[in-house]
Each structure stands twice: as C-alpha cells, then as structure tokens.
Amino acid sequence: MRLFLMVFMGLFLLAVPVSALAKDAAEEDRGDVLFSSLQGDRFVVVITGGRNDVLVDEQLDLFRESLKGLQARPITLVRFIEDKIFELTDFSRSNFRARKDMNAHQQRYLEAQMHSENNEFTVVLIGIDGYWMQTWKGTVDEDGVYTPRDIPVQPKAVFGAVDRMLLLLGKK
Fold this sequence. Notes:
- The chain is an alpha+beta fold.
- The chain has one domain: Glutaredoxin (3-Layer(aba) Sandwich), CATH 3.40.30.
- Helices cover 43% and strands 18% of the residues.
- A five-stranded mixed β-sheet has the order 3-2-1-4-5, covered by helices on one side.
- Strand 4 and strand 5 form a beta hairpin.
- It is globular.
- The N and C termini lie far apart (52 Å).
- The N terminus is likely disordered.
C-alpha cells in the first residue's frame, strides 16, 4: 500500500508540470496576441489584398450591404495593405490604434500570425482576446497546388463565427 501511494504521489507530482507544459504548448500554438491593446473589447476583421484588388471592393460592398449586422456586433473592420494597417471608419469607429507604417519585418510577422499575405485577398478574424481565430483564403488541391480565393466571404460566415464566440464567452 505504501508503495502504491508513493507511486501515485510521484505520478501526480509529475502530472502537474506536464499539464502546465501542455497548456504552454497550446498557447504557443495559438500564435502571438496581435492587437489586444489596440482593439479594445472587440473582434477585428482584417481584409487584405492588393491596392486595386476587385475582390477587396466586392468584400467591402458585401459588408456595406450588411452594415446593420456588422454594427450590431463588436467588430472593427480593418484594412491591411502593403505596409499599412488602418480601421475602415465607414464601417466601424472604435478608435483602433495600430502602427500605420510597418517595416518589412513587422509586415511579414503580422502576415504569418494571420495566416495570410497582405497582397493576396483574404479575410482574417481576430478574437476579442487579440488572438487569430480564422482566415478565409484560397485552397490547396490534392496535388498541393494553391489556388487563391476568387470570391468574397459572405458576411454571415463572419457574423456566425463572432456570434459563436460571443455565446461561448457568455456575452450573447
């Protein structure tokens, strides 16, 4: 019996650091906090794409058509283009503060954290906690060939992801 207790206690003591390591690893998998001090208590939807990207214009038109749904949720709409990131104040006015100009290293870092490239059309959702949640972008076929996204994201897909998270957080 004594041996059993010693083994049990040893396993228990080992389990605590292992679970702490597992928690740290899980947090590390989430990436870095992207905007938390900049976004307040809001989700951030980041739209990337080239300067004259037709899909960006179509995406903005869809959000414009769904403006009531966008404004009914704690969402800040942000544009990330080249080395600049800024709030689209026609859609939200949350005083989003970010570096307006980034060097190439900061730009690549942010792209990696958002699972996107800012010269390719993507829509990225950042959670209230500042962590990356989802990226809508192109697809990879079974041969490993990447095809860029060729249609905008329906706002109801973004709203659904936000609503599910608000429900989980007990804020809806």
